[in-house]
Amino acid sequence: MSRITRLSNLFLRTLREDPADAELPGHKLLVRAGYIRRAAPGVYTWLPLGLKVLRKVEAIVREEMDAIGGQELSFPALLPKEPYDATNRWTEYGPNLFRLQDRKGVDMLLGPTHEEMFTLAVKDMFSSYKELPLTLYQIQTKYRDEARPRAGLLRGREFIMKDSYSFDVDDAGLEAAYQRHREAYIRIFDRLGFDYVVVYADSGAMGGSASEEFLAVSPIGEDTFVRCEESGYAANVEAVVVPQAAPIDASGVPAAHVEDTPDSPTIATLVDQANALHPRSDGRAWTAADTLKNVLIMLTHPDGSTEPLAIGLPGDREVDAKRLEAQVAPAEWRPFEDKDFAAYPMLAKGYIGPKVLGENNADSGGSGIRYLLDPSVAEGSAWVTGADEHGKHVFDLVHGRDFTADGTIQAGEIREGDPSPDGAGTLTLARGIEMGHIFQLGRKYAEALDLKVLDENGKLVTVTMGSYGVGVSRAVAAVAEATHDEIGLCWPRNLAPYDVHVVATGKDEAVFAHAESLSAELVQAGLEVVYDDRPKVSPGVKFKDAELLGVPTIVVVGKGLADGVLEIKDRRTGERREVPVADAVNEVLADVRFEAHAAGANTQHSGD
Ligand code: ATP
Ligand code: MG
Questions:
Q1: What's the sign of the alpha-carbon dihedral 329, 331, 332, 335?
Q2: Which of 24, 157, 434 to mutate to test ligand 1, by most ligand atoms within 8 A of the CB atom?
Q3: Which residue's alpha carbon is at the smallest distance from atom 11 of ligand 1?
């Protein structure tokens, strides 16, 4: 049985001013309403109210993980280096990893995710196929030295994740474990009340194959995803695979010719100059889509070494920073800088063409820079592109005939209206917050750490694994962002820190006495109650605080008590009604239970 929480002694201080370092409205409100407090950039303290919400999210995740047979355990956050060396992640994680040394100078790390530790634990303890399948999970603190810790809990450097791992002897087992997780995640995100999509994801640095993300649809999301109405295809833009354009017959294209295009270092100026000085013979005007743009970037590998890379794509498209990031991971990238150009004098900035690009042309005066093309550049297609000389471009340069590249790269921007990769219609774009990620890892980690079990024939086989994450602390922030209004937080019933916020107003002792006994009755009835019993605080301040805190039901005991009534307010709809004092408890209970029932009916909770 819980007790009444009294605002007179709750460890809470609400703020009227927005915190200076917060960008997003939900984040500002979480700080102002006294749910969290910043300890360092990307590192937050959970105050009592925030911790209650966090625990409710955890409880939902835990119930659904238990329902699919997951067994909870908890690994340390402080970890030894060796396992992460064995999988090369000590190096691959690069600057994102928090590294430290103990007093003996031994390298250690703060875990960013725990594939290695789980793999080793299973290896230590299990040895037979009879002990599999197995699903283990934890809800635990992770550390990543994120480049852009922003938006508070949404991208912390310390954050709470549910991570689970499945262990199976064969691919069919892995597929089944993956599907069970997928269904559990659907139940989790239904219960958290998100508007979410399940999208194909990039498997990125983790290796492995099948992978999907659960994105909360939100304009503030850092991820962009595409959807195709016709086919139902949905993918993170990072994972969209643009099909290779079919070859085109180039037999009618004249030989490539270099032309003067003075002052045309950008695509826009090039198009203008081409139209002014070298109009097309067919009467159509040159457009950016006729030009081939060559973008130079510098990669930094996890070991600190650098490598230049050139990307060729139609001039009407940009390179998409996130798609590129996903393609080059675990390396990081930045645009070419003046000092990089200085190191490659054959690159005429603004006029770079395929002639000086490519891994194998260093001997013939080229740069030797690896050159990758956007898949939309068809073999046989003719382009206007740089002639590697200031003020000159080459026309009718045909891919396959006049130049080749070292391969293709999926880094061009994806645009609204682009054809769906499954050929079934066009794409629309929207933004989302990654809330969960499920992943068929396969045997990568088991191989690196030698996790084998005996199969039915007594033969040693390598175990196949899945890895599955939910951003638990991120979920608190994402719900706050999705549900708040101008005046405060606005929790859904099942995540609110309390069921009811009782406010006593005025100075009348009878009011306080009644509010106290009402709170006690509500607690008796099984509700979680916060009671604003602060004497000498004005009703205006109390109402503002109640609105800021965002408990779904607010009961005001005040002047009306003399007439036998009090007021019940719904924080989310703003609806208020006067009820006879004698009915108050039942009225509140009816509100709470009605919603609890509705929520239960919505989620086909397999534990029920
Ligand atoms: P992101 O692309 O947002 O950085 P990720 O791909 O690195 O996420 P995973 O490694 O798959 O994320 O981690 C599993 C889940 O943990 C994510 O789906 C997300 O909900 C959560 N998460 C990841 N990084 C953070 C972070 N810095 N702060 C809070 N939650 C995070
Ligand atoms: Mg990340």
A1: negative
A2: 434
A3: 437
Ligand nearest to the CA of 436: 1
- Mean predicted confidence (pLDDT) in 585-592: 94
Domains of the chain: 21-240+428-482 (3.30.930.10), 257-408 (3.90.960.10), 500-601 (3.40.50.800)
Our mutation pick for probing the ligand 1 site, out of 110, 437, 476, 481, counting the most ligand atoms within 8 A of Cβ, is 437
The dihedral over CA atoms of 63, 488, 512, 496, expressed in degrees to the nearest 10, equals 0
- Rounded to whole angstroms, the Cα distance separating 42 from 152 reads 6
Over the stretch 308-335, which tens digit does the pLDDT of each residue have? 999 999 999 999 999 999 999 989 999 9
Mutate to test the pocket of ligand 1, among 224, 433, 474, 481 (most ligand atoms within 8 A of CB): 474
Instruction: Find the residues whose C-beta lies inside 6 A of ligand 1.
Output: 113, 144, 146, 155-156, 159, 161, 434-437, 469, 471, 473-474
Nearest-CA residue for atom 8 of ligand 1: 434
% of the chain surpassing 90 pLDDT? 91
- Please tell me whether the peptide bond between 279 and the residue prior to it is cis, using omega within 30 degrees of 0: no
The answer to whether 352 and 386 have CB atoms below 8 angstroms apart is yes
Determine the atom of ligand 1 nearest the C-alpha atom of 113.
10
pLDDT at 150: 77
> Is residue 597 scored above 80 in pLDDT?
no
Report the pLDDT averaged over residues 565-587: 96
Total-model pTM: 0.91
With vertex at residue 588, the alpha carbon angle to CA 582 and CA 594, rounded to the nearest 5 degrees, is: 135
Which ligand lies nearest to the CA atom of residue 154 in the structure?
1
What is the dihedral sign for C-alpha 204, 209, 213, 219?
positive
Give the tens place of pLDDT for each residue, 162-178.
999 999 999 999 999 99
Name the closest-CA residue to atom 23, ligand 1.
471
Residue nearest to atom 19 of ligand 1 (CA): 471
Across the chain, mean pLDDT equals: 94
CB 481 within 8 A of CB 26: yes
Give the largest CA-CA distance in the chain: 97
Residues in the chain: 608
| Residue 22 confidence class, pLDDT cut points 50, 70, 90 | confident
- 346 CB contacts (<8 Å, ≥6 apart)? 356, 365, 366, 367, 388
Strands (E), 144-217: 158-168, 196-200, 211-217
Give the ligand 1 atom nearest the CA of 214.
18
Give residue 202's pLDDT band: very low, low, confident or very high (50, 70, 90): confident
pLDDT > 90? residue 114: yes
